[in-house]
Design brief:
Blueprint (H helix, E strand, L loop, with lengths): L5 E7 L10 E7 L10 E3 L1
Antiparallel strand pairs: 1-2, 2-3
């Protein structure tokens, strides 16, 4: 809760696709050099 460099993302699958009822959770890490360096994603 205290780390401002990591966020958790929830993406749901689009309707009318095999992923429509799926929930996909990712951890997004922002390095100290952001926005010069892109964020990293952990599945």
């Amino acid at each position: 809760e205290n780390r401002m460099d990591i966020i958790k993302i929830l993406i749901t699958g689009p309707d009318s696709t095999p992923y429509s009822n799926g929930c996909f959770i990712f951890d997004l890490y922002f390095p100290n050099q952001y926005p010069t360096t892109p964020p990293s994603i952990c599945l």
